[in-house]
Structures are given as structure tokens and as C-alpha cells.
Design brief:
about 0% strand, mainly alpha, about 45% helix
Length: about 80
């Protein structure tokens, strides 16, 4: 059997490589393919993706911002 010092490690098992700048394309591809594989497994045909921040203002802050916008003419009368 060959000396283990000379065995070639598979790139996908090489954490150093996978976490490197050079491995970035593979990580991006995996982030697309892994969910796609799960969707197929569970029969998901269509999805909707939302981009944005999970941060939002409190109800009080939002109501004040709306009031201020209406007073300054920055927002329609709403409804």
C-alpha cells in the first residue's frame, strides 16, 4: 500500500482549499446546487426569493415616519 504521505486528498475534502479564495467558485456553486437538490427531493417546482434586510422599524417609529412624510408631502394620502 502506498505511503499515506503521497495520497492525494480530494479537493472537496480539503477544508483548507474549500475555504480559500480559489475554492470560492465551488462554494458558490454548492450554495445553489444543495437547495436545488432538496427542492427536487421534496417535489418543489417553483420558489420565490426575497432579498432584503430583516431589520425593520418598530410600529411607533414607522407611524412617526409616515406622519412626517405626509406632512412634508413625501407621501400620498395613503389608504
Amino acid at each position: 500500500m502506498a505511503d499515506s504521505r503521497y495520497r492525494v486528498e480530494k479537493a472537496y475534502n480539503n477544508r483548507g482549499f474549500m475555504n480559500s479564495r480559489e475554492g470560492r467558485a465551488l462554494r458558490i456553486h454548492a450554495e445553489y446546487m444543495e437547495p436545488e437538490s432538496r427542492f427536487e427531493k421534496f417535489g418543489v417546482k417553483d420558489t420565490i426569493v426575497f432579498f432584503g434586510s430583516a431589520r425593520f422599524k418598530s410600529k411607533r417609529q414607522a407611524q412617526k415616519a409616515l406622519k412626517d412624510a405626509r406632512q412634508s408631502g413625501g407621501c400620498g394620502s395613503g389608504g
